[in-house]
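Figure-free illustration: sequence to structure, shown twice.
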Amino acid sequence: MVWNAIKSSLLSSLPESEFNLWINPLECRQQDDESIELIGPDRFFCAWVQDHYLNRINAAAQKIGMTPKIKLGVAGKAAAPVVKSTTREQLSLPGMSVDQTRFRSLHPAYTFDQFMVGESNVLAQSACTALATGDRSYGNCLFMNSSTGLGKSHLTQAVVHQVFNAAPGTRLQYLTAQQFTADMVQSLRTNSMEQFSRKYVNSCDMLLLEDVHTLTGKTKTQEELNTILDYLIKSGRRVILTSAVSPNKLKGLDEDFRSRMTSGLVTGIEAPDYETKVRIIDHKLRGHSLNLEDELVDYMARKLNGDIRRMESTIIGLKAKSRLRKQPPDMALIRELLSGMVSAGTADLTTEGIRSFVSEQFKVSTDDLRSRSRKRSITFPRQVGMYLTRKYTKKSLAEIGGAYNRDHSTVLHSVKVITKNMTRQAGTKEQIEMLCTKLKAD
């Protein structure tokens, strides 16, 4: 079989995870010496393969002495000869100009059925599902915020997949705030703001804009986007905005713009709870054809906190090391893998994990840590939590402050206080060092 031979060649030249993600899902519907008809799960998957792997597929075919015409299509639809795209950031739908629809590169696995729902994200998932299907139960404007790696992009891309699969004629704009700014600047330079406005106002049925926290301080972009949002929301168009910081923590924003962005549903996505992490890990293990005992899954769920991408990375590493050593994954291998993710055994430390640790050590609740209380019994643990989070994570001051219901200046002050006291008070220094030792060993 020609396609099997091509796949074997690609498997030897691509990383296994990449092969499993982009080549393995392709199915051969028909093949002969002159052509191969391949089908993928959806048109976006096929577009990505077309742009990033077509040359590799052709090279692999030539390697085995074949030069077939490659046809690529979506399951259930007729395959068509592949024509090389002229852009990697947007596709034109039938009967529509390229200017009318724009979206970022989509991950084929970022769909609703691949999203693990838990208490930490159920409202965001429900709202996105409703907006994707045209249900206005949650309104027509959604603002989602969360730390990195908790599923904002997964949900927004799931919306795009759903919309284009169900209603491919939808005029949709999906891009980052940085891309929006660059587009506006280019339009200003070329005196084409009329076309810019037409694209995002008259010719836009749905706008998905990620990373709006990057617009802080960009007054002109805020003004333009505020005007666009005003029109889209009032005319009933669907809008989804995402941010790494909650709206009330965003600095350098025009208040009218902040009000407009949060005129609909505002919801955060928290780190997954234990049960959700178990389901996520189980799901990703199945995707990598791994089967672990419950004890091992339990250990990973307890150790891997926060960023879901870290779970994926751990499982990929687990599979690779297991194959390399030709032994099934065991506790020793998992411990080794987790301890090596970052130095000093702090691979799994997150803002939420450190806050819970401090809560347990000082016998105060997480609600107390987030409260406005100025009692010494509360303020000191809160300052310690901020200090440890700053020391062991890469979170920004604003993100750390958000975990304790404070702003970035409070975090900076807390770090300075703890650092100063450690140099002047032996008791504080010993206490912090003891906590650091416990935290890394936990």
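We now fold a second protein in the same way, so the two outputs can be compared directly.
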Amino acid sequence: MTQRDDAGITVDDLPTVRRSLRVAVVTETYPPEVNGVAATIAPIVEGLVQRGHAVQLVRPRQHAGDRPDDDAQRLHEVLLRGLPIPRYPHLKMGLPARRALGERWSRQRPDVVHIVTEGPLGWSALQAAQRLRLPVVSDFRTNFHAYSRHYGVGWLHKPIVAYLRKFHNRTACTMVPTEALKRELEAYGFQRLAVVARGVDTRRFDPSRRSDALRRSWGCAPGDRVLLYVGRLAPEKNLELLLRCHAQMAAVDPRLRLVLVGDGPSRADLQARCPQAVFAGTQSGEALAAHYASGDLFVFPSLTETYGNVTPEALASGLAVLAFDHAAAAQLIRDGDNGLLAPAGDEVAFVQRALRLAASPALAGALARRARETMVGHGWERIVAQVESVLLAALAQHEPLPWRPVRVPVPSDV
């Protein structure tokens, strides 16, 4: 591995030598919960298992009937207590479990701990791992510090940044999805950052899943176009700009139908302000893929994403995408070729580009075709390999403890 200073790590420089690992993955959310973190950590866990690693998945119990889904050879789930998150009661927040994790990892010692979320469960996992001198890597997946101003608690920005910096700087490496976010966090004093992008399931998110029946249920006649939004219905998503775009686009194309997929605290207000829109609620799996593919235009006005998984999903589904030059869109979209980009924060330019989509079906169609073409090859296999390299590097650089037997299953070919 090429040695770098504490400011950052280049994933391409990380070890490529394969060995089987015992990995403890700690996350406060996981499918079937529907959110960006759950959707992107699940392919990592599945990919690590497929690559021959033994994964212990530590997460909160999602409901009373929740039971571990174990693969005796490769995957073992550990379910701990959790509490509903305020304003998102369908999601759970993990409770501190330092003692329970410490006892478990003392008996069955993982090679490396991968902490996905920075909540109470993640913090206690970090403490337990450090006490046992286990190597730890982490993910930066949610811009909590950027959300504060949207909920009237902007004064919390500095304390949140300080907590996140303290958390992540105690780990061997923090994976971030974009170079832009890496630079932002470096300016805040975060160390040992590695850029590991996100993948997209191009077999699931595919234009072939377009459904005429679904479009009819939205009130669409042949020839009508659908302006689609997918994501949380929440203040930090900048949905005021979405409504403004729709109003001006509908003046150009009166048959344009607005469909919003998702749920959240802003739903009632949005329904009151835009009663003609279709609110499809939360969707997942094959149904979500059909909703994407059944749209035509995708407008995503958020500026608070760490990555924005909906952008590659919409591109892979063959939609004409408009977004700010930020997060995933900045990495994946070439303005005017496979989508449209507006300068970050420039809402006038954003609306102007939305009007171009409304006024030119030919342009939108060309962008949609190129969107699908450019997303082929952005599957999860390459991303999982990069995560694997980060885990191997953390283990290689960690001061080893005397060997002791463990009961975590290891692959038979090791």
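Summary for the second example: The chain has two domains: 11-199+379-397, 207-375.
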